[in-house]
Amino acid sequence: MSELDRRTFIKAAAASTAAVALSRLVKPETVVAATPTRGSVVTNDGVTLRYDEAGSGKPLVCIPGWSQTAAQWKHQVSGLSDRYRVIAVDMRGHGESTKPDHGYTIQRLAKDVQDLLVALNLTDVTVMGHSMGCSVMWSYWELWGADRLAKLVLVDQMPMITADPAWSPEEKDDAGAIFDPTSLYATIDKLAGPEGAKTTGGFIGAMFTKTYPRDDLAWVVTQNLKMPREYAAALLLNHSSQDWRRLIPRITVPTLVVGGRVSVVPWKSQVWVHNQIRGSRLEIFEENEGGNHFMFMENPEKFNRVVREFIG
Predict the structure, then answer these.
(1) CATH (domain of 101)
(2) Segments of the chain assigned E as strands
(3) DSSP 8-state secondary structure symbol assigned to residue 19
(4) What is the full DSSP assignment across 45-57?
């Protein structure tokens, strides 16, 4: 081999090595999501809670919002199970879980979560609550503190849903209230009445951006209607009567707060929650990022990335 050929060969080899190294940096890894399995646990009062589970590693437990189901966490169960043991639960009365005629209070649901964690022997858990799921975890914190918990992901829940007519505008903004006593009871009565399904459709429709596919929205409404409307109304009344403004500042585990710029939950209330929890992180999804109440369904790619960065 001549000196010129030798130099040409060395340059080509070096270029090939650099190209391979660069491709490893910029080409995303192929992720094969684990196939979800379905399991169940029984609470201390005999209610069967169904859950979906996939993956292994650090446990990530997903608590749905009011009248929502574990199935609505499908993008997180599939998209995060490459790194974590992801468990999405149907709360009592919701989805595929037992539907007793009692227990539709935030405090009882908090006990159900504790029963789940104990039954599955989960410790060092990141719990991700959406909407009412945040209230459930605030109640859990009030009762058991950081027991079994490592981190919290709080997705789009205001500290108090129903405004006191005597509040100042600033208090109402901080609380994120969307009801007053009159509108709350009017909504409860409609949910429990003959127009419960229609009321649910309108309620849920306002929680997605206009670009969300209508067929997918219809599926979400179907998931909601798996909970009897009478029970859903009772739970919403209890949920809307809880004031968490004194509890939230007492949270001491690492916390991620997620909100939406055009969510039905006013985004300023999410800033307030973030400001009350020392060292917490805040992520607000803009409207063009699916930034309404269900950003984890509208933009699961960004949502899952933010969660991964937080959990580590």
Answers:
(1) 3.40.50.1820
(2) 37-42, 48-54, 58-63, 84-89, 125-130, 149-155, 255-260, 281-285
(3) H
(4) TS-EEEEEEE--S
- The two three-digit tokens of residue 138, written as one number: 């605030």
**What contacts 76, CB < 8 A, 6 or more positions away?**
60, 62, 86, 88, 128, 296, 300, 303, 304, 307
Alpha carbon distance 176, 172 (integer Å): 6
Structure token pair of residue 46: 């005999």
Residue 36 CB neighbours (<10 A): 21
User: How many alpha carbons fall within 13 Å on the CB side of residue 238?
Assistant: 19
Look up the domain containing 210 and give its range.
Answer: 37-311
pLDDT along the chain (312 residues), means of 10: 44 41 36 75 98 97 98 97 98 98 98 98 98 98 98 98 95 95 96 94 95 97 97 98 98 98 98 98 98 98 98 95
Give a yes or no: residue 115 inside a domain: yes
What's the CA angle centered on 89, arms 131 and 223, to 5 degrees? 70
Residue 22 belongs to a domain:
no
Q: How many CA atoms lie less than 13 Å away from 275 in the CB half-sphere?
A: 10
Is the whole-model pTM more than 0.85? yes
For tokens 């930034």, name the residue: 291
- Report the domain count for the chain: 1
Beta carbons within 8 Å of 31's beta carbon, 6+ residues apart:
82
